[in-house]
Amino acid sequence: GQQLNQSPQSMFIQEGEDVSMNCTSSSIFNTWLWYKQDPGEGPVLLIALYKAGELTSNGRLTAQFGITRKDSFLNISASIPSDVGIYFCAGELAQKLVFGQGTRLTINP
Amino acid sequence: ETGVTQTPRHLVMGMTNKKSLKCEQHLGHNAMYWYKQSAKKPLELMFVYSLEERVENNSVPSRFSPECPNSSHLFLHLHTLQPEDSALYLCASSITDSTSTSYGYTFGSGTRLTVV
Known about the structure:
The structure holds two protein chains of two kinds.
Chain A: E1 4-7, E2 10-14, E3 19-25, E4 31-37, E5 44-49, E6 55-58, E7 61-65, E8 71-76, E9 85-93, E10 96-99, E11 103-108
Parallel strand pairs in A: 2-11
Antiparallel strand pairs in A: 1-3, 3-8, 4-5, 4-9, 6-7, 7-8, 9-10, 9-11
Chain B: E1 4-7, E2 10-13, E3 18-25, E4 31-37, E5 44-50, E6 53-57, E7 64-70, E8 73-79, E9 87-96, E10 102-107, E11 111-115
Parallel strand pairs in B: 2-11
Antiparallel strand pairs in B: 1-3, 3-8, 4-5, 4-9, 5-6, 7-8, 9-10, 9-11
């Protein structure tokens, strides 16, 4: 079946540092999505990418849809305490989302 | 408020009980989904409804029975569940175009289900 490899699995950083995470797949997707999930809540959409090569920003977040349509990265600049949580990538094809395993971000003040 | 509302937020049920999870979306979307999130596993797609028709049943056991009476409401009927079915059940909705590309894929807050 389709699988997404998301890395790193966890990150421990200092407040103010930049963060980078990525997802790769052996399958091609139409859309790449990045979500953040807080404990006890559902995933919240951060950035959606619909075209290969697309680079999109949302405040301090920047994400890119890889040219091969098999990968994507998410960068967070100047991290703040509320960035703590689990970040998921998801590839979409024919309405179905395939999720990565998540990156748990911990920030030391 | 995400626009996708799930009730109840928490549910504890015995293995012989019958219960239902409810999802409602106010986003004007035309597709709705059920996902399962278990500890230490990626989110897994269970069911897809597009224009109120089920288009995907991802090898889910028959003890889970979905129902989509209209484009705004989605139910998951549960009966004779097992303890390993304990998980966070998430509903989502999207707009899907004629090429089956989905936009605005939005999740609810989930129902935390515990089977005892």
